[in-house]
Specification:
The structure is a single chain. The protein is α+β, with helices and mostly antiparallel strands and 167 residues long. The protein has four helices and four strands. The protein has a two-stranded antiparallel ribbon with strand order 1-2. A two-stranded antiparallel ribbon has the order 3-4.
Length: 167
């Protein structure tokens, strides 16, 4: 024998749906659409990572205040439980730089050939780029300069874009 608990419903001020919880007078669907439609002000930047591209920014409600955040920071903050009280605390917990200090302790280096790995340029061109001009299978034939000459009779006027009056 199951007992059903009846919860009081409230109408949404936008779509009049009967729901048990409202956010700013709206059901969750209307609230989500309203949040996504709010524009971010000119010159705004993400409060966490200072991203300035407007197509990446949106207004997010943090502790009853609307704060501009980029999509990445907003998604990461939503998963935090609990959300820190200040922007500085949020920024500290979302810090992306993992190499501020050397994580290798004073332990023994157990590699066969110990050497420092963080030397030189890490992002070098791919290996295949080094051999592109020496491998005959990759090298393209030299066509020289290709010139196409058209005679007046070969030009079709229908392929040109023009402006004309509406019929």
């Amino acid at each position: 024998m199951s007992v059903e608990v009846q919860r009081a419903t409230i109408p949404c001020s936008i779509c009049s749906a009967q729901v048990t919880e409202l956010r700013r007078g709206r059901c969750w669907g209307c609230y989500a659409r309203w949040v996504e439609s709010r524009p971010v002000g000119r010159g705004a930047s993400c409060a966490i990572c200072h991203e300035k591209r407007r197509d990446q920014l949106k207004l997010v409600e943090l502790h009853s205040r609307s704060v501009p955040l980029c999509h990445g920071c907003a998604a990461r903050i939503v998963r935090m439980d609990p959300i820190p009280d200040t922007v500085e605390e949020i920024r500290f917990s979302l810090r992306r730089e993992r190499r501020e200090e050397d994580r290798r302790g004073d332990g023994l280096d157990r590699r066969i050939f110990p050497r420092e790995r963080r030397v030189g340029e890490r992002r070098t061109p791919a290996v295949r780029d080094h051999f592109a001009d020496t491998d005959p299978a990759i090298r393209l034939p030299d066509f020289g300069e290709v010139v196409m000459e058209l005679q007046e009779a070969e030009i079709d006027g229908s392929e040109q874009t023009g402006v004309s009056r509406r019929p």
